[in-house]
Amino acid sequence: MQLTTDGFRPYLTAVEDNFGADVDYAMLVKMYGSEKQQESGPAWYGPAKVVAAMPVPIQGEPKAKFISTSYIERQNLTMRMQMRRFTRLTNAFSKKLPNLKAAIALHFAQYNFCRIHSTLRVTPAMEAGITDHVWTLAELLAKASGEQKAAA
Q1: Are residues 70 and 55 in contact, defined by beta-carbon separation less than 8 angstroms?
Q2: Gap between the Cα atoms of 130 and 73, Å rounded
Q3: Is 64 exposed, middle or buried (0-12, 13-18, 19+ CB in 10 A)?
Q4: Is 14 in contact with 43 (CB distance < 8 Å)?
Q5: Which residues contact 150 (CB under 8 A, 6 or more apart)?
Q6: From CA 23, how far away is CA 10, in angstroms rounded?
Q7: Of 28-32, 41-45, 96-100, 146-150, which range is least confident?
């Protein structure tokens, strides 16, 4: 497996703690330049301009052409757009960690089992061969509540 993170230093120990030596790991370290005042709105609201991105192999043999954070950044954008908990400057946050975990789990289950993606023309779970049909929300919730009852 190959893993790429941004340059956030705590990822170094997190990757080691969770994957050990069983991963080809690289960091994509971005350098930011100072941004002049934007034409409209305060400058702090927008992101700084990326002036360089340096791929840094950390462990194993990561392939240079796959060192990218684009997929995870797209996933993060999708989460922010579909779940108000992750939108900037909002009060729609979870006050309790279990509620946040449940909301994230429900989002990913719906995203992968109930939602047909235009590029795939099926759900991601169908494309991966995990299921043979699009799940309804009722089916998803029934499976989730059945697993909770089995675990109890």
Answers
A1: no
A2: 25
A3: exposed
A4: no
A5: none
A6: 17
A7: 41-45
- The label of the residue with tokens 């299921």 reads 131
Query: In whole angstroms, what is the distance from residue 42 CA to residue 38 CA?
Result: 7
Contacts 24+ apart (CB under 8 A), 41-44: none
pTM: 0.67
What is the separation, in whole angstroms, between the first and last Cα of the chain?
Answer: 34
Bridge partners (DSSP) listed for residue 30: 53
| Tens-place pLDDT, residues 91-150 | 877 788 998 899 899 999 999 999 999 999 999 999 999 999 999 999 999 998 886 666
For the chain, strand residue ranges (E) read 2-6, 24-33, 49-59
Instruction: Report d(CA 115, CA 118) in Å as an integer.
Output: 9
How do residues 61-98 score in pLDDT, each as one tens digit? 999 999 999 988 998 888 888 888 887 777 877 788 99
Under the banding of pLDDT at 50, 70 and 90, the label for residue 38 is low
